[in-house]
Structures are given as C-alpha cells and as structure tokens.
Automatic annotation (TrEMBL), chain A:
This is glutathione transferase. Residues 3-82 form the GST N-terminal domain. Residues 88-216 form the GST C-terminal domain. The lineage of its organism: Eukaryota, Viridiplantae, Streptophyta, Embryophyta, Tracheophyta. Its EC number is 2.5.1.18. GO terms for cellular component: cytoplasm. Transmembrane segments: none annotated. It comes from Linum tenue. It comes from the Eukaryota.
UniProtKB/TrEMBL annotation, chain B:
CDD domains: GST_C_Tau, GST_N_Tau. The keyword Nucleotide-binding does not apply. Belongs to the GST superfamily. GO terms for biological process: glutathione metabolic process. Residues 91-215 form the GST C-terminal domain. It catalyses: RX + glutathione = an S-substituted glutathione + a halide anion + H(+). SUPFAM superfamilies: GST C-terminal domain-like, Thioredoxin-like. Residues 1-24 form the signal peptide. This is glutathione transferase.
Amino acid sequence: MANELILLDTWVSPFGMRVRIALREKGIKFEYKEEDLTNKSDLLLKMNPIHKKIPVLIHNGKPVRESGIIVQYVDEVWHDKAPLLPSEPYPRAQARFWADFVDKKIYDTGRKIWTTKGDEQKSATEEFIGYLKTLEAELGAKPYFGGEKLGYVDVTMIPFYSWFHAYEVSGNFSIESNCPKLMAWAKRCMQHESVSKTLPDPKKVYEFILQLKKRLGIE
Amino acid sequence: MADQGEVKLLKTWSSLFGLRVVWALKLKGIPYESVDEDLTNKSDLLLQYNPVHTKVPVLIHNGKSICESLVILEYIDETWSQNPPRLLPRDPIQRASARFWAKFMDEKQALPSMWQAFTKEGREQEEGVASIAENLKLLEAELEGKKFLGGEEIGIPDFALGWLVNLVPVFEEILGLKIVDEERHPSLSEWSRRISDIPVIEESWPPRDKLVTKWAAIRDHFLATARASSG
C-alpha cells in the first residue's frame, strides 16, 4: 500500500516544525496543509476532535496527534532512516525526559515574555534564561543533545530558535550573551537542510507575534 | 527473566504518580525497594537523583535515575520487555493513541481541572467542575466497548487514569459533589471496578481516611489563602 502522509500544521508553530524536521531528516515525502486556526478545516476537526490543534499527521487516513507523539511514531515506523531516539532503554528515557522538560518549560515561559510587561515580564525572562542554561548544562560538550547526530531532543528544541528573536525583542534581552553555547548548538542544527528548510525567518515570527497580540487585545 | 539489578523507587505515601510506577513494577513482578519521601524535607537522595525537578517519583536502576512517571513507565516496559503485561501496544498507531490518552490525563485538562475544582470555590470551582464533566464525557466515549483504555490489556493510559478510582471518591466526600456516576458514566464506572479488582492495584491504594484528612487540609489551605488575599 502506498504511504499517504498528510500533515496539518501552521508555518509558525514550533510543534509543527518538529514533525517537519523529523520527516525531512528521514527523507519521507508528505503533503503539507497549512491550517488557518481562526477557521479550522473540517479535516482538522475530524482528525483531532478532542483538542482541535495542530500538528496532526494523517498516515493512510489514520491520525496521530501531539508533536512529541508524532515524532516518536515517525521514528518507530521509519526506524531505519536517521533514527532520532537511541536504541537502548536508559538513553531513550533520558531523551524523553529532556524533551518533556522542553515541552513543560520553554513554550509557556516564552509566551509569558511576549504577553506580559514590567515585573511579570522580567521574571518570565529570568526564568526562561534559567531553563536555557539548564539545557546548556545538559548539552555539555556534545555537538547535539543526541550526541554526534541530531536526535529527539534536538528536534524538540530547535524550532524555538526561530522564536528567539521575538522573545529577545519583546523582553529586551540577549539570548546569545546569556547562552552562547546554546546558540552555537542552534547554528550547528541550522546547517542541516531538514532544519533550515523548516524554520521560518525569525523576523516573520516576530511580525506574527505582533499581529497576534493585536488580535488578542494585548498591549 | 532478565537480571534486573537493583531497583529503588522514591515516592510519597500518597503520590498518584508514584502509584503508577508501583503498579507497573508489581504487575511485571519486578522486586524493588520503596522509599517514601517527605517533600517538606527532601532527602539528599532525591536531590541527587532528580536535581532538575526535585520531584517524585524517581526510579533508580543500578544507580541511574529516571524521572517523570510516564517516562519511567516506558522505561520499565522497554527494560523488562519479557515480563508481561506489555504496557504499550506493539502497533505504532495504537502506541501513539495510548501515549495520547496518557498525556491527556496529565496535561491537557484532566488533572488540572480537578485541581481547580478542588482548590477553588464559587464560580472558579464551577468552571473546574464543568471542565471535569467535559473530560469525563470524552473518557466515557473512549472507553465504550473496551476493557481497558489500552484495549484488551491494561496499559500505560490506564495507569495514568488510575488515580480517578481512588481519589475521586475522596474528592466527592470533601466537596459534597458527585463527579463520576453510574448513569452518566457507565463505561468509566465499569472500568473503575475492573481496575479495583486487580489485586496488585487494590492492595496499593493509600488508606482512604488518611487521604481524606490530607486533601481536606489542602483544600482548607487554598481557600484560606484565597480568602485572605481577596481581603
């Protein structure tokens, strides 16, 4: 049976980017469908009735939801091409732990940076930098979180690199000066076509946030 | 059976997340040493083995630590893959679905909405209760016609939801509300009975009266704090 893959996504979603990077790393062809989240398609509502969120990967008509779960699914089905998770249980558990850390901390704290002001924003910025430093410590001297090659944690975290500029301008701080090692890691990841082809222009992400703030009625 | 080495579990007497790991270890017949932590006075062991979150549960296997209950459950399933039951299905689509429902319990609304209903009053509580009702409807639909959330056999999503069986009656008693009932939730009620019938699960429940005392105190604390700050 031919493999039919459809990805419901939006260009700016760091969660959707994870899936695109994983598929591209493995050289898997897929059809990309850009969703308008203010006017969700029938397909999205049918394939993810519970959360009505992207990304959703539809594989031969069956939906897989939640970016981390989708990436693991892709890794399991196409396990012989550019494996993202280690093969042994303990390193796999470590990779899942750190991906979970990114999931729990980065997006929500980052969001606080561009949706708040004053003291609240300052403390969100400090918290955010703290998490980036924790990630730097975990990276250590390795070129990637996955070791010598791009792995599950790299794919989970690197989309946020396209949002760094938006966070920096909103919060008036520099990620480069606080976390140079992490920035070096990000640039290393960007040398992979799967990443550079997927991540949008950071300036466009910033413009998007400005428009989103207007729409949400945030100053 | 693989040589399992030394297995230690850091948890607390009442932790629902720790309970999941207890079930997995016991069902798979893995001997382990249990350490109950006092989270108001965290042990050096906990701080050493979970420096990032300093939370329980933590599984320490041959001196190496694994943290976050769902990560631990997958680790146990992969490391002791020869020991039944399988905690995740073999088929990748079904695995993805099992992971989705496990995550749903923890993150999206299930536990947080329970927390809101429990620690607030007035309109905020009503919102929490309404949110719980929505989630229970989704769970009821998902459980229909199934023995377990994972299908024919118990698995990780059932472990993730298992707290419901033990803790909901406690919350119902404290709040004076019915949250799960036979009429609105026939499949969920039957699933709860099926879960409770499993000896390993039944014998691991924390004592109910201790739970009522603990959670009543938690609710009082949150309500008092909220009332004090609203002046």
